[in-house]
Structures
1.
Amino acid sequence: MDLLNALVALTNFVLVPGLAYGSQLALGALGVTLIYGILRFSNFAHGDTMAFGAMVTILFTWLFQSMGLSAGPLPTALLALPFGILGTIALALFTDKTVYRFYRQQKAKPVIFVMVSLGVMFMMNGIVRFIIGPSDQRFTDGERFVISARTFKKLTGLQEGLAIKTTEALTVVTAVIVVAVLFWFLNKTRTGKSMRAYSDNEDLALLSGINPERVVMYTWMIVAALATIAGVLYGLDKSFKPFTYFQLLLPIFASAIVGGLGNPIGAIAGGFIIAFSEVTITYAWKKVLTYGLPDSLAPDGLVQLLSTDYKFAVSFAILIVVLLFKPTGLFKGKAV
Amino acid sequence: MKKLLMATAAAALTAGTAYAGGHAKEVKLGVLFGFTGPIESLAPAMGDGAELAMEEVTKSGKLLDSATVTPVRADTGCIDNGLAVANGEKLVAEGVNGIIGGDCSGVTGAILQNVAIPNGMVMISPSATSPGLSTMEDNGLFFRTSPSDAREGQVMAEILKERGINSIALTYTNNDYGKGLADAIQSSFEEVGGEVTIVTAHEDGKGDYSAEVGALASAGGDVLVVAGYLDQGGLGIIQGALDSGAFETFGLPGGMIGDSLPANVGADLDGSFGQIAGSDSKGAEIFAEMAKERGFDGTSAYASESYDAAALFLLAMQAANSTNPADYVGKILEVANAPGEPINPGELGKALEILAAGGDIDYQGATGVELIGPGESAGSYREIEVKDGKNETLRFR
C-alpha cells in the first residue's frame, strides 16, 4: 500500500506534469528545428508565433462560445484550432513575403536572419498585445479533469491523489498524432521528401528541379500549424498570456539544441529531456521516500537535490554539457 | 516634431485655465509604473488613480498660480532595472517636478539610487513594499504610501495563528518584494510558534510550475502561503496546487489580492484568506466613487495609494509654494500627518485653499495616509477571505 502511495505521488507530481510539459516543448521545438533545418536560421519569433496562433484560436473560441457551439467534454478551442492555424499560416506567409524573402534573395548570412527574426518577434509581440491585451486570458471549458485527486482517493482508498487534467491528456494525445502525421509527411510524401532534400543540400536540390519558394512556403505552413497547436495546448493547459510565450522561447530552444538542431526526432527527445530534468532534479523526494522506505529510514529533510530556484539552471547545464561534448546535439543535428 | 506635439498638447490642456488665471504655470509629475511586465494588469488603474488626483487639482485651479498638472507616463517593466532607470532619467530630462513610482520594489530601489539621488528628485511610491527600502540611504527623497512588508509579515502571522494553523509551506516570487515578504512572514510566524516546512522561490512569467508544486506538496503543511503576484507565478502555483490536490487552502498576501484571482481560479479558492494594505477610512469609498465616474476600478490594488501619492506631491508643493523638489520635500510629512484639517479624496481644492491661506491640513486621502519613520505608511490592513468567488473584507487590523 505504501509503495502504491509512493508511486501515485510520483506520478501525480512528476510523471504527469512532465509528460504534458514535455509534449508542449516538443511541439514548439519541432517548429524551431524545421525552420533551422530548412531555412537555416534560428527563428526567435517562434514563441510569439505560438502566441499569435493561440490568440486567433481564442478569438474563434469566444465566437463559438457565444454562438453556443461546444465540443462536449472537450474544450471548444479544439473546434477553433483549424481557424487559428489558417490565421497563423496567413501571418507566417505574409511575414515571409514581406520580410524574409528580401533577405533570402540577398543571400544574407544566418546571423542577419536571426536579427531579422528578432525584429519580427517584437512586431508580433506588439500585434498580439495590441489585439488581445497583455493580461491573462482563460478559454478552457468542457470537463476539467479526466480524473481529479479527490475522486481518485475515493476510488482507490489511497492517501495520495492522482489528478489528470483533460488538457494534459489532450496534450499528449494531440502531440502523438501531430508527430505521427508530420513524420509520415516528411518521409512519405513528395513535398516532404523535397523539403528534406532541400535541407540536406540546397544546391543539389535546386539542380534536381525542386522549387525553393515552394519548399519555403510549405515549411512556413507546417511551422505555423505546429506553432498554433503548441500554443493552444500550452494555453489550454496553463493559461494564455503573451509574456509567458515570450519566456517559453528559452526552454524551446534548449530542447531543440539538446536534441540536435534540424533533427525532428531530436526536438521531441529534447523537449522531454528538458521538461523532466526541470521537474525531477528539483523535486523534493521526502514524500515518496517516506512512503517507500521503512519508518526507521524515513528522511527528516526534504531530500531535494537542488532548490526549485535552479530549475532554469538545470536545463542550461544540460545544454552546456551537450554542446561541450556533442555539439551537434544528442541526435546528430547540424552543428550550431 | 515631438516638442511641437507636446507644446500643442500642453497648450490645449492649459487653454481653459490659462485664460482664467492669466499666467499659468505647468507642473509635471512623472508616473513611473510597470505598464508592461508582471503587474501590467494593475498598472493602468494605478496610473488612472494618480492622474485622477492631478485632474482634480488642475480643475480646481488653486495650485500655486493656478498651475496645471500634467502627467508624464513611463514604464518600469516592474522587474527591468535597466528600463526603469533609463525611463527615470528620461522623466528628469523632460523636467518633471516629482516622480510617482516606481511600483515594484526592485526597480524602485534602482531608480532611487541611480536617478532620484543624483538628481535630487523626490519619489513617492504607491506600491513598493520591500522592508529593504526602509533602511536604504535615500537622502530623505523617498516616500511611500504603502506600508513595509515587515508589518505585513506580522499581520499574516497573527491571522494564521488565530485560525489555528500550525504549519505552512511558503513560496515567494523571486525578487526583492517576494524575498522580503517571505522573510518577514517566516520570522514572524516562527516567533509565534508556527512551523514553516519549506520556503521556495518561483519565477514569474512561466506557465509551468509543476516542479515548484511538487516540492511544496512533498514538504506539506496546513496551508500554502503564496507571496507572489496574482497575474503571474502566484496564480500558476495556486492553480497547479489545486489541480494536483496538493493544497486546498491558501494564504494570500497583498500581491495576491485582486478580483482577477478568484475569478480565474473559481470556487476552489473559497476559504482561502489573506490581507492587503488598506483602511476602513471614508476616503476609500469616496475614491471608489470618483474612480467609477472616471471609468476605472478604484478598488484595484494600489490605485488608491497612487492617488494619494500624486495628491501628496501637489499638496506639499502648495505648502512650500514651490515646485522645486528641494523646497517641497520637507513639507510632505507635514501635509500627510496631523495636526490640521482632515482631507478626503475629492477635497484637494479645499486643501489647496487652506494651505494657500497658511493653514494646516492632515491629508487622509483614499487610504487614511499616516506616514511614519523614514516616510512610509504606518500600515493598516484589510483581512480578506474568499467567499463565493469574491474577496470579502472580514475586518481591519
2.
Amino acid sequence: MTHPNDISKIIVRIAEIMIDELKLEDVTPETFDPEIDLIDEVGIDSMDLATIALVLRDEYGIVIDEDDYPKLNNIRLIAEYIQKRVDEGKQG
Amino acid sequence: MQVQTHRVEGTQEKTWKFSDIIGDPVVGARWEKVRRYFFLRESTYDMTNRCNIRCDGCYYYEGAKQFAHENGNPADWRHLMKDEKARGITYVVLAGAEPSLEPELCQVCFEEMPLGAIASNGLRPIPGSINYRIHISVWGDDKTSLRVRKAKDMLVRQIANYQGDPRAVFVYTFTRDNIDQIHGVMEVLARHRCKVTLNVFSSPVGYNGPLRHTLQSLSRTRKTMMALISQYPENLLFSPYSAVAHTHMVGLHGLYSCSYPRMNTSTAIGLGRSFRQYRADLTWDRGAACCVPDTDCNDCRHYAAGSAVVTARLFRHASDPDTFKSWLDYVDTYLAVWVMGYEKDVNLCDHMVSPPGHDLPED
C-alpha cells in the first residue's frame, strides 16, 4: 500500500486507478495532470467518481462522502482529501 | 471516517472490501455488464400538450408545463437534439403529453439521438423506424381503465398495437385501487408474450384522491410484486429490491436523496449538472426539472425516478454482498426496461434487502 502521507505517491496511485478503471487512453500515471478538471476536461461523471471512490476505499480504508464528490474535481483535491481522512483516522 | 461494516446477525461485524464483493465471478460479471452503461446521461422532453385520453391523477396536466406553446417545427427539434448531444446528453425520454401524436418529431429525435424511450398510452402505434423503447402505460384492467382513463378496451388495443414488438415494455402502475387486478392483466400480457415492468402511483402535488397510496396499500403492493417475480420470470422485468425501493413507507427522496435538479441544487456533477426537462415549447425550468414534474416529491415512488435515483447511489450499496447484488439487480432491471437490446439476467438476490440506512418496510 502507498504510504498515506506522501501526497505525490497518492496522486500517482489515483491516476493509475482512474486510468485502469475508466479505461482512459493517451495518458499515463506520470503524465496525468493532477490539476486537470476531471468533470469538465476529462469528462467523468458521478458514476465514474463513485467507482473510483470504492477502489480508494479498499486501498486507503476511507469513505468519500457522496456529498463531497462535487468538490473533488481534480486528482490533487482527491489526494488531499484522502490524506486528511487517513490522518483523522489515525487520530480518531 | 473509516470503512463501513456490515453486521450479520449472530456473527461479528464483517468489513467488506469492494474488490472482495466483485471477486465473486457472478457478481463481478454482472458489475462489468451494467457499468458499460454508466455513460448514459438523460434528459426528458414534452413532445406536445395534447393527449388522446385524460387520466385521473396524470402528472402532466398539473402545473404550468401543460400551458407551454407547442413547438411542432421539426427543424427546431433537430437543432435542440444536436445541442443536447453537444452538452453530453446520450439518452432521451420523450414523454408528455402523448408523443405518439407527434411521430415526425419523435423520428427527428431518433435520427439525432439513437438511445431513448417514449412514454405512451399505446393506443396509437409509433412507427417502427423509431427504434426507442416504448413504455405503454397500464393502470388496471379494462373496467378500471374505462373509469380512470375514460378509454374503452385499452389493454386489448395496446396489445393489438404492440404484441411482438421488441421495443415495447408494458408498465403496470399500482394505484391504491387496482392492486389485485394485476393478476388478470399479467396473465393476459404473459399469454401474449409481452414484457412488463411495475410502477407505483406517485401523487401529483395536491392530489389526495382515491389512487393515492396508504401504508396498507404499499404493503399489499409489495407482497403482490414479490409473488409476480416468482410467477412470471420470463415476462416480468423487476427485482425484489425494486419492490423494496418503490413500496417503502419512506419515498424515493427520503431513502436515496433525489438527485434531479428540482431537489438537488448542486450543478457540479451528475443529474444536477446535466438533466433538463423540456416543455413542449423547448424551454426548461431548473426549479421544476425532474422526470415526473409536478409530482409530490414526498410521495414519489415512480419507476422513472428510481431508475436514476437508486442507480446513482452505487457507493452506499457496496457495503456487503447482498446489498450490492440487490443494487445490481435493480440496475440490470432498469437497463432492460429503458435500453433497446439490453437483456435482463436472473436476479442475483432472491429476497428483500433493506435500503442503506433504513429498515425493511413493515408489513
3.
Amino acid sequence: MIEIQDLIYQYEKNDLNYIFNKLSLTLEKGSFTTLIGPIGSGKSTLVKILLGLIKVDNYIKIDDLVLCTSNMKKIRNKIGVIFENPDEIFVSETVMDEIAFSLENQNKSKKEIWKKVEEIANYVGIKPLLECDPHTLSEGEKRLVSLASALVIDPQILILDEALSMLDEISKRKIFKILKECNEKGVTILNITHDLNESLYGNDIVLLQGGKVLLHGSKEDVLKQETKLKRAGLELPFLADLSIRLMYYGILDHMILDMDEMVNAIWK
Amino acid sequence: MEIKYDSVYYSKNENTSLEKLILEDINLELKEGKINGIIGKCGSGKTTFVELLNALLLPTLGSIQIGDYQIEKDCKIKDINNLRVELGYVFGNPKRQFFLPTVKEEIAFGMKQFSYKLDKIDSRISDALKMVGLDDSYLERDPMKLSNGEMRKVAIASILAFNPKVLIFDEPTLGLDSISEKSFLKMLKMLKNKYHKTIVIVTHDINMIHKIADYLFVFHEGKMVLEGTKYEVFESELLEQYEVVRPSIMEFSYQVLQKKGIKLGYRDDVNDLIKDIYRHAS
C-alpha cells in the first residue's frame, strides 16, 4: 500500500509554483494503477519522493513503514522501479550481472544469487540473453532486463516511470502480461505514463493535474469523464471513445474496454 | 528528388566475430512529395534504414540513389556531404541535439557549418521558426527550458533552416501529449502540401502514423516485407506474422469482419464508424 497525505513540494523554497499542493493519494495493496499526468505535472518527482531520493517532511507511508531515513533501506527493498531510459541505469557488462546487481547489495551467497537470477530470467523469457551486453539489446529486450532486475528482489510494489513509451505495441503487451501475473500474485503496480492507452492494461486510473489528484477510480469510471480528460490534453483510447458514443446512441449500456467483448456486445 | 534503394544490405561489425546482418536485400522507392511511414517492431531495422538514407551509415552491399547522388560502400564523405543539406534528419530526442544557450544560436549552428552567408542567416532563422508555428519571441530563449512540444518544433526549425527537400523523423511523437501531437501532425501536413517536402517517418506509434501517412513500408527482421497505402497495409492478413498491430479503429473493423462476417469498411474517424455500426447493428 502507498499512502500520501497532504504532500507539498516546490522545486525551490520561495517558489510559488507548487509541484504538489496538498496532494493526497492512497493506493491499496494489490492494486494496478495507471498514473496519468501531462508533461511537467510532477509524475517523475513523485517517484523520486517515494524512493527517498528527494526528501520531504510530509506523511508518506509505504505498507507499514513511514517514509524516513531510518526506514529507507527496508522501503527500497520493497520497491522495484523501471525507469524510462534503461541505458542510463545499466551498470554491468552482462545481463546476468545486471540482474544480480541488487541482490549483491543484499549480502546473499553467490549460489543463492545465481539461482534467483536464472529463475527470473527464465520467467521473463530472457535466459538466452544472460551473457549479452545489456546496452546492445533491442529496446524491448532492454525493458525485459530492467523488469527482471526489478523483480529479482521480490518487490511488493513495482513502479514504472514512463518505462514503456519507447516500445512497440507487441513488446508492450508482452511486458503487461508479466505485470498482470505479478499483480495477481499480490504485487502493487503503479504505471506512470502520459499515454492513456496504457491504462487499459491496469485496473485503476489516477489523473494528476495542477499538483493535485483530479480523478481517481476504476478505469471504466475515469474514462467516462471525457471532458476532464480532454481538458488535461489527453486523448481517449479508441474503445473508450467508441463506448461513450455507442452509449449515447443506446447501442451499449456500459463502457467496454475489450475488443472481443465490444464486438460481441454490439452483435449478440 | 528520387530516392531509390537497390539491393541494399547492411551488416553491423563487418568482418568481426560479432558481425550481424541488420538489413537484407532492400529494394524500394520512397514516394516523392508524400508522407512515407516506416513501421515494424523494435529491432526490425527501421532506424538503420533511415541512417543509411542520410549516409550516417554506408551500405555493406548495394546502392541508394538520391537525386544525382549515389550512396555506396566506398563513398567518400566529402563527396556526399552536400547531400546532407538536402536531407534533414530530426532525431528522436531533441535534448540530445541541443547544446547552445539560445534558440537562435541553435538554429544558426547548422547553417554556419555549411557556410551560409551571415546576412542571410537571420532571416532564414525567422522563416524557419514561422514554418513550425513559432514566432521571434522564442529567439533568445533557452532551448532546454522549452516544453517537449516546443523543443521538437525548434529541432525541426533548425533542420528546415537549410531548406532540405526531404525531412526524416525518427519517432517524432514520442513523449508528446495529444495536443502537441495534433499540432505536430498539422505542421507535417502543411510542410507536405505547401512546401512540397518529401517526409519520411520512422515510428512504432501505429495510431499516429495511421492519421498522417500516405504510403507505408513494413519492416520485419531486416527485410521490407509489405508496402502500400495505409488501407492496403492494414487490411493485410499478413500483419500478425510481421508482429505489427493495426490502429485500434481498423482493428475493430477487421475483427467484426473476421468474427461476424460483417464488412464495415475501414474508417479513419470514429464518427463515420458509428454510422456504419448503427446501420449494421442487430
